[in-house]
């Protein structure tokens, strides 16, 4: 379910999708993101080899990740922004998000977040650690899904992806996912070389960005939807890249 939902990798469909399977898929989301992270890293490395401008390499890498995830999270970000900007009425906001067509708020948010991501990754490439920054951002962005689906986080609707995964991950498991990502960043990034503490800070900022959007959506919408999950992924990616942009 993790690979089939979050990537274009062809895998057998799970026999039954219940809360146990859904929760496991959210926990394994960083694993499913490894192929996407590898593609982004290869593109950044190739761009450096042939002398592409750093901004172009960053745009190509992030574009490949979007293509490899069917634009799922970008679509969720735009729909979430439209819903939050449409009305303070919860039912109205959810209806706007359900329609799926992007309005001015969603488009503006999408453009701004992509500019932040691309500019930040461009800075990381210029600083000499773009490969590590791209890989860590992609994996951490998917890691926050376990946080967004932790026990106690409700679903905004009684149906849909959000209802299937909301509250399906034990809090301690979500904490373990964070610890593994932070610990891995602290161990691996010094090889580039980037200080170990910057790896911790980058993962922490990625989680903080997702937490802020998650808290806002829970207050305004009453919980999470599939769109909210996608939005949290994209703002987390932006946060990690900003932390490693210099």
UniProtKB/TrEMBL annotation:
InterPro entries: CobS. Pathway: Cofactor biosynthesis; adenosylcobalamin biosynthesis; adenosylcobalamin from cob(II)yrinate a,c-diamide: step 7/7. It comes from the Bacteria. The keyword Isomerase does not apply. GO terms for biological process: cobalamin biosynthetic process. Joins adenosylcobinamide-GDP and alpha-ribazole to generate adenosylcobalamin (Ado-cobalamin). Also synthesizes adenosylcobalamin 5'-phosphate from adenosylcobinamide-GDP and alpha-ribazole 5'-phosphate. This is Adenosylcobinamide-GDP ribazoletransferase.
